[in-house]
């Protein structure tokens, strides 16, 4: 079974600075999908960015980018120019090409200081 | 342009009672998922519906949990004889299809508290 590990329970960043959230996963599969979701206090999970494992190029979405290291099974999220609205719980998730579910990590709380 | 709608937003009930949680997916989305989020933890998969196919119930924690999806749209998650360990936020998600790259769109969840 696949597992996802987020080793940082909490992170802090100063407004306008850059922060990187870590995620590692364990799988024996060669093709899969990886996602980062954001969960603000409103509870709604919001998709931040996704990466297809067969693509070597790292995904980017505006201020959000990933560092996907397939051999190391690492999928970190970089947030540039952090804003107060970025404060939330961030979840890394894995989805097999053969499965129906997302497998989530335990999450990282991101605090943004003004 | 409504998103995934869940009701009720919060539910408090006594141990041993049955509860029903409702999910109204985004119009046109054929895939629907239920997850459970216990306090301070990540999401745990419960069940998946896709069109008229048999649901994937592999994540349901016990036979007290069941779910149905009527007419390929609205879904109801039922918990019978609730226990205190059932207290959690129950999140529903939908996606346009079964393809694994399709992102899942989540509702705001139902916070269930068992007294």
- Largest beta-sheet details of chain B: 6 strands, mixed
Low-confidence residue ranges of chain A? none
Structural class designation of chain B: mainly beta
General shape of chain A: globular
Query: Multimeric state of these chains?
Result: heterodimer
Mean pLDDT of chain B: 92
Round the Cα radius of gyration of chain B to an integer and report it. Answer: 13 Å
The percent range for strand residues of chain B is over 45%
- Measured as a percent range, the helix fraction of chain B is under 10%
Structural class of chain A: mainly beta
N to C succession of SSEs of chain B? EEEEEEEEEE
Task: Summarize the structure in words.
The complex is a heterodimer of chains A (114) and B (115). Chain A has strands at residues 3-5, 10-14, 19-21, 24-26, 32-39, 46-52, 60-61, 64-69, 74-79, 88-96, 103-104, 108-113. Chain A is mainly beta and 114 residues long. In chain A, the strands form 3 sheets. In chain A, strands 2, 5, 6, 10, 11 and 12 form a 6-stranded mixed beta sheet that branches. A 4-stranded antiparallel beta sheet of chain A has the order 3-9-8-7, with no helix packed on it. Chain B has 115 residues and is mostly beta strands. In chain B, a hairpin with a 5-residue loop joins β4 (31-37) and β5. The interface between A and B is medium-sized, with 27 and 27 residues.
């Amino acid at each position: 079974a696949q597992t996802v590990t987020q080793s940082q329970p909490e992170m802090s960043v100063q407004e306008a600075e850059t922060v990187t959230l870590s995620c590692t996963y364990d799988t024996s599969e060669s093709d899969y999908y990886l996602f980062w979701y954001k969960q603000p206090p409103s509870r709604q999970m919001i998709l931040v960015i996704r990466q297809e494992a067969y693509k070597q190029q790292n995904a980017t979405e505006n201020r959000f980018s990933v560092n996907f290291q397939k051999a190391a099974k690492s999928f970190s999220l970089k947030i540039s120019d952090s804003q107060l609205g970025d404060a939330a719980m961030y979840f890394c998730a894995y989805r097999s090409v053969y499965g129906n579910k997302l497998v989530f990590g335990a999450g990282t709380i991101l605090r943004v200081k003004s | 342009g409504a998103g995934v709608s869940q009701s009720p937003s919060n539910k408090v009930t006594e141990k041993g009672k049955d509860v029903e949680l409702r999910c109204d997916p985004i119009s046109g989305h054929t895939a629907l998922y239920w997850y459970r989020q216990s306090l301070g933890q990540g999401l745990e998969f419960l069940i998946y519906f896709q069109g008229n196919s048999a649901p994937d119930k592999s994540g349901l924690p016990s036979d007290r949990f069941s779910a149905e999806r009527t007419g390929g749209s609205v879904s109801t998650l039922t918990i019978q004889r609730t226990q205190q360990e059932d207290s959690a936020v129950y999140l529903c998600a939908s996606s346009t299809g079964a393809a694994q790259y399709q992102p899942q769109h989540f509702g705001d969840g139902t916070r269930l508290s068992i007294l």
